[in-house]
Design brief:
Mean pLDDT: 94
Helix content: 10-25%
CATH class of the largest domain: Alpha Beta
CATH architecture of the largest domain: 3-Layer(bba) Sandwich
Structural class: alpha/beta
Bound molecules: flavin-adenine dinucleotide
């Protein structure tokens, strides 16, 4: 790919990053690592230094890890690296003409000037259509540390929990809740859990695992209303099939909404996320965007897509830091993701691309380890790997090279995946073994 002419930051330029999450923190750290010496400011509306969100629905909710374990970097590192972090400070408007960001923080309103602005605003939890239900003190969403702190106090053995939404995060909460002795019902509007992100085989596997752990899964049903008692606490959930579930608490896990209003109000292109090109540039060349808040070109399938995953946030942050330090390279990483539920680790690379063939390696109907490969025109395009991190490392390489392999060997767990990788590498164009 011929690189466009991309302006890099001057030595004294000021980089302002809106959002102190995974992507914002990584962007600041990588800028320093690549030698950028100018001032960097992170504006973070949360009161905490950047922390990692994945453990929120796993070890942190379970009580296995503490809030300080979640820090992406020890807070002192920011000062050491001359990165100013303004906590509890919300960016409220961007003035592109004067290159300033209006902020609202502990010391009141301020205008912060920038030479380069990086939007790393992530997303917020999607709410129930009956958003009034969220006022109840035992109806929770899952995005921030504070959300988990609130719900964890109500995670008492025997409490009746309704998880609304059978996506990864909802199912992770269900798994932790069962480990904590709660009585758990998962309500999913679609015909199966994880319907938005994977194939029925994987959904069936997870339904089996959760049922084995005593979770009551109810699909094809949505919440009609949440009944709130006189004390302001939700007491029951009425479902679309007429059933009323008495509950002690509710966790709403029905997805995320990108925080793109700041960009929209500044006149940047947004489309359920801040629209960026493969260098993470918005429609203003001085404003870039990274992480969950972006809609970016999908190198695998074409079109624009939004990816909610740590690897995506990290990679986009690196792409921005590279561009600003004069080492521009496009974002073309293949997205990947993981989810931990009970003793089951799912790792996904390629995120459900278009495919015309599925190869199953191992059995999803019994046991706790199998893999699913998605092929198109004979080439491996994606893989869902359950409880086999070693195979996942190889699967990532097979997907990256779009390897064409013998599918009967791929389906056979007795054939080491590495052997297929060795064969595919030898066959790859440029290695001299194909066509003489
Ligand atoms: C419960 C949970 C479990 C997850 N598990 C996994 C997992 O297992 N694997 C995985 O790969 N991914 C997982 N994810 C997704 C992953 O955490 C996100 O993809 C990642 O955090 C995205 O990073 P980000 O920096 O783009 O956004 P965020 O981490 O959301 O950070 C954005 C920050 O910007 C702040 N902000 C927004 N607007 C403003 C403003 N105007 N001014 C100032 N600050 C602002 C927000 O408050 C937030 O602090 C999980 C997410 C959640 C919520």
């Amino acid at each position: 790919m011929e690189l466009p002419d991309i302006e890099s930051a001057g030595a004294d330029d000021r980089v302002v990053i809106v959002g102190g999450g995974q992507a914002g923190a990584e962007c600041a750290a990588t800028l320093r690592m690549l030698g950028f010496a100018g001032p960097i400011t992170i504006l973070s509306e949360e009161p905490t230094h950047p922390y990692s969100r994945p453990p929120l629905s796993k070890g942190y909710l379970l009580g296995d890890v503490t809030s300080t374990d979640l820090y992406i970097r020890p807070p002192a590192t920011y000062e050491d690296q001359r990165v100013e972090v303004r906590l509890a400070t919300r960016a409220t408007a961007i003035d592109r003409d004067t290159q300033t960001v209006r902020t609202d923080g502990p010391d009141g309103v301020d205008d912060v000037s920038y030479d380069w602005l990086v939007l790393a605003t992530g997303g917020r939890a999607r709410l129930l259509p009956d958003s009034g239900a969220h006022a109840a003190s035992n109806v929770h969403t899952l995005r921030r540390l504070a959300d988990i702190d609130e719900m964890r106090a109500q995670f008492t053995p025997g409490a009746r929990l309704a998880v609304l939404g059978g996506g990864y995060v909802g199912l992770e909460v269900a798994a932790v809740a069962r480990k904590s002795g709660l009585d758990v019902t998962v309500v999913e509007a679609g015909p199966r859990v994880l319907a938005r992100v994977t194939l029925p085989l994987v959904s069936d596997f997870y339904e089996r695992i959760h049922k084995e752990h005593g979770v009551d899964i109810r699909t094809c049903r949505f919440v009609e209303s949440v009944e709130v008692g006189a004390d302001g606490r939700a007491v029951a959930v009425k479902l679309s099939d007429g059933v009323t579930l008495p509950i002690d608490l509710i966790v709403v896990g029905i997805g995320m909404k990108a925080n793109d209003e700041l960009a929209h109000d500044a006149g940047l292109a947004v489309d359920e996320g801040v629209v960026v090109d493969e260098f993470c540039r918005t429609t203003d060349p001085r404003i870039l965007a990274v992480g969950d808040c972006t809609r970016h070109p999908c190198a695998q399938n074409g079109g624009l897509r939004r990816v909610e995953s740590v690897p995506n946030a990290l990679e986009q942050a690196k792409v921005v830091a590279a561009a600003l330090t004069g080492n521009a390279r496009p974002y073309d990483a293949i997205p990947w993701f993981w989810s931990d539920q009970y003793d089951v680790k799912l790792q996904v690379v390629g995120l459900c691309p278009s495919h015309d063939e599925i190869v199953v390696r191992g059995s999803a109907d019994e046991g706790r380890s199998f893999s699913l490969f998605y092929l198109k025109d004979g080439a491996i395009r994606a893989a869902d790997v359950v409880n086999n991190p070693r195979d996942f490392m190889v699967a990532k390489k097979l997907v990256a090279m779009q390897a064409e392999v013998d599918t009967s060997r791929l389906a056979d767990p007795a054939t080491p995946l590495r052997e297929l990788l060795v064969d595919a590498t030898a066959e790859a164009p440029g290695n001299g073994s194909r066509d003489g």
